[in-house]
Amino acid sequence: MKYFVTVNGIAHEVDVVERLGELAVKVDGRELDLSYEEVDNLGQVALISGGRSWGVSIEGDEHEVSCNIAGHLYAVAIEDERERAAHAAEREATKGGGTVKSVMPGVVVKLLVQEGAAVEKGQPLLILEAMKMQNEIAAPAAGVVKALHVREREAVASGAKLVTLVAAP
Amino acid sequence: MKYFVTVNGIAHEVDVVERLGELAVKVDGRELDLSYEEVDNLGQVALISGGRSWGVSIEGDEHEVSCNIAGHLYAVAIEDERERAAHAAEREATKGGGTVKSVMPGVVVKLLVQEGAAVEKGQPLLILEAMKMQNEIAAPAAGVVKALHVREREAVASGAKLVTLVAAP
Amino acid sequence: MFKRILVANRGEIALRVIRTCREMGVEPVAIYSDVDRKALHVRMAHSAVALGGSTPRESYLDMDKVIAAAKASGSEAVHPGYGFLSERSAFARKVTEAGLVWIGPPPEAIEAMGDKITSRRNMKKAGVPVVPGLVDPVDDVERALAAAEEIGYPIAIKAAAGGGGKGIRLVRSKDEMATAFRTASGEALASFGDGRVYMERYVDEPRHIEVQVLFDKHGLGVHFGERECSIQRRHQKLIEEAPSVVVDDALRAKMGEIAVRAGAAVGYQNAGTVEFLYSKGEFYFLEMNTRLQVEHPVTEMVYGVDLVREQLRVAAGEPLGYTQGDVLAKKHGWSIEVRINAEDPFNGFVPSIGTIHNLRAPGGPWVRLDAALYRGMEVSLNYDPMLAKLIVWAPDRDAAIERMKRALAELNVGGVRTSAPAALLVLEEERFVRGQFDTHFLNHMDLATPRKGEDVLVAAASAIHRHLLMRRKALRTSDSSRAAWGTRSRASLSPYPAHVAGNGGGQ
Amino acid sequence: MFKRILVANRGEIALRVIRTCREMGVEPVAIYSDVDRKALHVRMAHSAVALGGSTPRESYLDMDKVIAAAKASGSEAVHPGYGFLSERSAFARKVTEAGLVWIGPPPEAIEAMGDKITSRRNMKKAGVPVVPGLVDPVDDVERALAAAEEIGYPIAIKAAAGGGGKGIRLVRSKDEMATAFRTASGEALASFGDGRVYMERYVDEPRHIEVQVLFDKHGLGVHFGERECSIQRRHQKLIEEAPSVVVDDALRAKMGEIAVRAGAAVGYQNAGTVEFLYSKGEFYFLEMNTRLQVEHPVTEMVYGVDLVREQLRVAAGEPLGYTQGDVLAKKHGWSIEVRINAEDPFNGFVPSIGTIHNLRAPGGPWVRLDAALYRGMEVSLNYDPMLAKLIVWAPDRDAAIERMKRALAELNVGGVRTSAPAALLVLEEERFVRGQFDTHFLNHMDLATPRKGEDVLVAAASAIHRHLLMRRKALRTSDSSRAAWGTRSRASLSPYPAHVAGNGGGQ
Fold first, then answer.
1. In terms of domains, do C74 and C185 share one?
2. pLDDT tens digits for range D33-59
3. How does the average pLDDT of chain C come out, rounded?
C-alpha cells in the first residue's frame, strides 16, 4: 500500500507491505528494517532500525501525528492514495484559503477586514486574544473574504470558524 | 455501615454513612470532614480534611490496600461485619498458622522441617532462593507441620503453597 | 522562624515555595481555585484553603479572599511567588495590616520601582546608569529635536502610554526626526488617546542582563551575580543562564554594586532583581522586579543558595549572616534554564491547550525539574502557559549546553505542544554556543526549517505503524487505549497561519 | 575521545553512562536481553544490539555475545557499569584482545584486588592498614590460640571459604577460643567442605567508609574524599552519604593518601573505590571495588565532578589534568543517596515484583533521580532489585537530611513495594541525624512500629473511600480503570513471616 506522508512540510512516499504479520516499510524508496514496539498505551514507542535505536513519543490521530524524537518535534500528516485524491479535490475547491479556524479558545478583539475585501497572503484578518496575548490571525493565501463568522468581542471556542476566503475571481 | 480497618497492624472501627451522595466517615468515633478526589485512574488521590491536605497514592484491591502518604507506607486491611465474622471462623480453623504461601517466585533450596514435626513461632521452615538471596521462611505461629507442599530444588510461583501448619493437639 | 505560612500562588512556584517550607519545618498552606482542586501544589501542601472561582480574578487575584485564607489557616506570613499579587503594593499593605508578615519588599519599595518615571528618577539620583534620554515625555517636534542633540543618535521614540513595543520608532539621524515623531505621536494618539512620546538612546545589540539582590531587615544587602536572559521573544524569556558570557569578575562587581545601590535607594528588603540592558561594555538600568524571579534557579545552582529559604529567613527578621565576599566565594560553574511553555513555537508561539496524558521527565546528574505537572492535568487558558522549568548545572558553559540538550532529549510532555523543541534549536545554534547573541536572536531565528536526516524517516515510519495500528483498533469497540493515545486534538496539529503580536510583560 | 562505545550493562547504570556519552558527543551503544527490549536504556541509546535470552547468563553475562555486539556496532571501547562483567578480569582481557578499549582498570589490578588473601598481602606490603589478623587461614586450635595472643582480643573467626557472615564467631577472651574455634571450623566444613578459618581482630562499632580514587594512564592518581555507607543490612547498602560525619580534613587527607597508595600498589587505572572499616578513629582496608560504585553520585555532587566523564577521559588516554589540591578545593556541601529497591522492608526486605503502573518523581532544587524506570516496566526476579537512586545535595548535612525527607515524601513508585519508607524512617531517627551509627544500625531498628497520628486516620478513610468506589465499579462490566488501579497483587500485601538470610555481596 502506498502512502503520502508529509514530515514538517516535506513530502515523502511510503510503501508498506505486510509480510508474515510484519510490516516492510520503504520511505522514498529506501527500505527500513524496523522493529516497532509500543511501551505503553500513552504513545511511548521503542523503535530499532538498522542497529540504530530511538525512543519515540507519538500522539495524534490516524492522519495527523506528532513525533517527539530526542526532543525534536516532527509533525506528520498521512494520506493514502484515495485520501490524497479526495483532499486534492478539496484543496482545489477551497483555493484562496478556505476557512480559517481558531486553534484556541479566545476573544475576538478586532476585525481587520470586511466581507468582500481582497486580501494578500499573510495579511492580518483579525486579532484574537488568548492567554493574555493578542494574536494576529493572517490569511493563509491570497483571496477574497467570503464570510466573517465572528464579531468583535465575541468569545470563540477552539476549532471555531473565523473567516472564509475564496479565490479571487 | 460499620467496617473493621487494620492500619499497620492496629485495628480501627470505621462508621460510614452516605448522606446526599457524600460519605460521612467516622474513625474510632471521630468524625472526619473529608473531600476525597481521584486525580487519575492510577491511584493518585487529593484528600482534604479539616483544612489539612494530603496527596495519597493508593493501590491494592477491595480488601487490602497500600496507602503511601508523604513517603510513609500504610498497609490497610478492610472487613465489613459479615466478612469479619467469616474471617474469624477461618482463623479459628487454621489456628497454628494455616498455610504459608510464597510471596515471590523462587526455588526451594532446603526444607528444614518434616511432616509431623512440632514447630515454634518464628522457627525456619525452609529456605527459598529468589533474586540471588536466600530467604528463611519462618513459622507464623507455633503448631505442627501437617503438609509440605514443595520439595527441595523445586521452583515455585508467587502465591504457591509451601507448608501447612495446624494447631498442636 | 514561622510555624506556618500561606503560599499565595499556584503552579510550579507554589510548589517551589512549598518544597523549601517542608525542608525548613515550616507548614505551607496552599490556596486553590475550583479548577486547581487536584493540583500538585494542593496535594503537597500541609493545609489547603479553597478560594472558589475558576478565573484568576475570582481566586488568586482576590486580595480579600487570600488574606482571609491566611487568617483562617493560622498562617503567620504570606509568600506571593511571582505574578498574581506579588507586585501589588496594596496587597503587601493589606497583608501587613492584617497582622501577617509579608515575604517581600516594603510596599513603598514596590511603588518606587513600579512606576517607570519614578524609578528612573530615583535611579538617576542614586547614581545608577539609565539609558540616556528624557525623563519627561515630549509632545512637540521642536523640543524633540533639541532633546535629541543632548541624548545623541540613534534615538528610539516610544509612546508614553504604550507598552510592548507598540509605536516604537528608530531615528538614526536629525533628518529622520520630524517624520518619525509625527507618525509615532499619531499612532500613540490613535492607540492610547495620548500623543506624548519618550525619547531615549537606541541601544544596539542589547543583551538582557539582570542582577539578583537580597536585603535583610537590618540594612544589609548583597548580590548573587548576574543572569542573562537575552533569548526571548516579545519580552517573554525562553532560555536563561548564569553567569553571562559578557560579564567578567570586574564587571560583575560593578553591576552588583550598582544593583545593591539601586535597591538601597528605595529601602529594599527581601529578594529582588535589577534588570539591565547591556550593550558593548555598557549597561543601563531597565527596571527592578520586586519579587522572586521565574529564572531564580540558575542563580541558586551557581551560588549553592536556596533563595526561597533566604526569603523566609530575612522576612522572619534574621540577619543575612554572610558578606558579599562569602557569596562570591561560592560561585561555581554554569547553569541554564529552559522554560517549558504550553505553546506551539512553530506557529508563532500560539498557546496550546489540552490534557497532559503522558510525561517523561529527564533525570540524572545535575538536572533539575521545577514543575507542578502531573498526568491528567488540564492545561487551559485560565493561567500562565508555563508548565515547567528545566534547569541544568555543569562546570562550564559548553558542558551546561550539552547537558541541557541531553535533558531536553529525554523530556516528553504529551497532550500539548511546548516550547521545548524551539529551545533545543537555539542550543544547537553555533552563534548561541559562541555566546554571540542579543535580545533579537530568537526573532531572527528560522524555527520552521525542517530537520534533515534519519529522524525524519523514523518519524514517517513510526507514524505509519501507528496509523495502521489505529486503523485496526478502530474496528474494535470500546478500546480504552485508543482513547488514551489520541487525546491530542486534531485541530492543534493543523498548520496555523497565526502571527503573534501580543504585549509581553515578561517575568 | 571515542566516537562510539558499548555500554555493557542495563538499568539505571546503563542509562547513567548513556547520559554522559550524550553530553560528550560519544555515541552510546546499548545491549539488551529479550525482556529488556523496551527498556529505557535501549530507547535512550544511539544504537542497540539484541543479545537474546532473558536470564543474565544468556545475555549480559555472556562475554562472547557482549564482545561480538561491541565489534558489530563499531564501538571503540566498552564501559562495564557495575555488577555483571565489571569485575571479571577475564572479560577485561577479552575486550582488550578484541582490539577494544576497556573502560576500567587493567585485568592484573582486578585480579590483585579480587582475591581476599592476595589483596590483603599486597596492602600490608604497601603500608595500607588492614584489620590485625592472620593472612593465612589456620586449621588447628593451638595455632589459633597462639595467633590470638599476637592479634589481641576481641577476635572474629571466619570461614576461609565462606562469605556473607556465615559461620562468624566472636571470641572475647582466651577461655572462649577452643569452643568457638571448633564450632566455627565444624560449620565451615559442613557448609563449604573446608574447615579452615581466618582470625582477625573484631572491630567494634564499625562504620563503612570508602574512598573514591581515580588514576589516569600516566601514573597520576587522586582521591575524591570519602563516602559513608554504614546504613546497610547484610552488606546491602541502603543510604550513603558524602562526606562522613567522622572524617575531618586531616583524616580525609590521610585516608585519601592511603587509598591512592593502595591503588598505585596494584598499578590501578580508571575509577575505583577503596573500602575501609572505620572504628573509633582507626581505619582498616577491607577491599577495593575495581569499578564504578552504585553510590558514586554523592561524590559527584560534593566535588562537582562527572565521574563517568572522567572514566571515559582517562580510558581514552587523557591525563587527569588536575591535582589533588584542585579536587579538594571543589569540595562543597553534603550529599545523601537512598537506594529505591523493589523489596518489602516491613517483611524482612523480601523482593517485591510487579508492573510499575504509577510513578511520581520528586523534583525541585538539588534533587537528582538516577533511574531507568518507566510506566509499564515489569519488575521481575531476573535482575537486581534496585529500581532507582534518589540523590540530594545541600550546603550541610542537616539540610541534606531534610531535603531527602522532602524528596522521599514526593516519590511514589506504584506496583511494587520499595525500600523508600524504610529509608525515611532511618532519616527520622535522632541517632542518625546526630551521626551516631555504625553498620549494625539498620539491623537494630524496629521498622515495624506503626506510625501514629492523623496519617493513620487518613489512610483508613482513603482506603474506605476506595473500597466503596471499587465495590460500585465492580458492578459494572469492562471497567478499564479498575484493572489499571488494582494491578497490585493481593499476595504481596499479606503479612509474610519471612526472615531473609541471604549472602549479600553488596555493590
1. no
2. 999 999 999 999 999 999 999 889 999
3. 89
Nearest CA in chain C to B52: C47
Q: Based on the number of CB atoms within 10 Å of its own CB, is D193 exposed (0-12), middle (13-18) or buried (19 or more)?
A: exposed
Whether residues C323 and C217 fall in one domain: yes
Q: Chain A within 8 Å of C250 (Cβ-Cβ)?
A: no
CB contact under 8 A, A51 and D38: no
- Per the rule left: phi > 0, alpha: psi between -120 and 50, beta: everything else, B161 is beta
Span C105-114, average pLDDT: 95
The full set of domains in chain A, from first to last, is 2-80 (3.30.700.30), 95-166 (2.40.50.100)
**Burial per residue of B82-106, b for 16 or more beta-carbon CB atoms within 10 angstroms, e otherwise:** eeeeeeeeeeeebebbbebbbbbbb
The answer for D 388-427 residues in CB contact with B (under 8 A) is: 405, 408-412, 414-415, 417, 420-421, 424
- Residue C16 near chain D (CB below 8 Å): yes
Q: In which band, very low, low, confident or very high, does the pLDDT at D120 lie, cut at 50, 70 and 90?
A: confident
d(CA A9, CA A76): 8
Q: What is the pLDDT of residues D257-285, one digit of tens each?
A: 999 999 999 999 999 999 999 999 999 99
Active site residue C291: yes
| Contact residues, chain D, for A51 at CB < 8 Å | 47-49, 72-73
Cβ neighbours of C360 in A, within 8 Å: 44, 57
Claim to verify: residue C151 and residue C245 sit in the same structural domain: no
What count of other Cβ atoms lies within 10 Å of the Cβ of residue D329?
A: 11
Contact (CB<8Å) B133/D487: no
CA C230 to chain centre: 12
Searching chain C, which residue's CA lies closest to the CA of residue D478?
C478
pLDDT tens-digit series, residues C303-313: 999 999 999 99
| Sequence-separated (6 or more) residues with CB below 8 Å from residue D297 | C365, D335, D337, D368, D370, D389, D391
Choose the closest CB to D332 out of C19, C304, C306. Answer: C304
pTM of the model: 0.90
* Same domain? D368 vs D355: yes
Backbone angles phi, psi at A45, to 5 degrees: -125, 135
What is residue C499's predicted lDDT score, i.e. its pLDDT?
A: 36
Q: Does C465 touch chain A (CB under 8 A)?
A: yes
pLDDT < 50: residue spans in chain A: none
Task: Count how many pairs of residues, chain B against chain D, have C-beta atoms within 8 Å.
Answer: 224
- Does C321 share its domain with C267? yes
Average pLDDT score over chain D: 89
The ipTM is 0.88
Q: What is the pLDDT of residue C476?
A: 56
Please report whether residue D378 resides in a domain. Answer: yes
Catalytic residues of D: 291
Provide the shortest C-alpha distance from residue C231 to chain D (in Å).
Answer: 22
Q: Looking at residues C183-193, what average pLDDT do you find?
A: 79
Helices (H), chain A: 81-93
Domain that holds residue D447: 342-451
Minimum CA–CA partner of C299 in chain D: D365
Q: Tell me the pLDDT tens digit for each residue of C380-395.
A: 888 889 999 999 999 9
Chains that touch B (3 or more CB pairs under 8 A): C, D
Contacts of D475 in chain B (CB under 8 A): none
Residues 6+ apart with CB under 8 A from B158: B102, B103, B104, B105, D353, D489, D491, D492
Exposed, middle or buried: residue B152 (CB in 10 Å: 0-12, 13-18, 19+)? exposed
Between B90 and B29, where is the model more confident?
B29
Q: For residue C297, which residues of chain D lie inside 8 Å, CB to CB?
A: 365
Task: State the burial class of residue C154 (Cβ atoms within 10 Å of its Cβ: 0-12, 13-18, 19+).
Answer: middle
Cell for C219?
Answer: 540594612
Report the neighbours of A using a cutoff of 3 or more CB pairs below 8 angstroms.
C, D
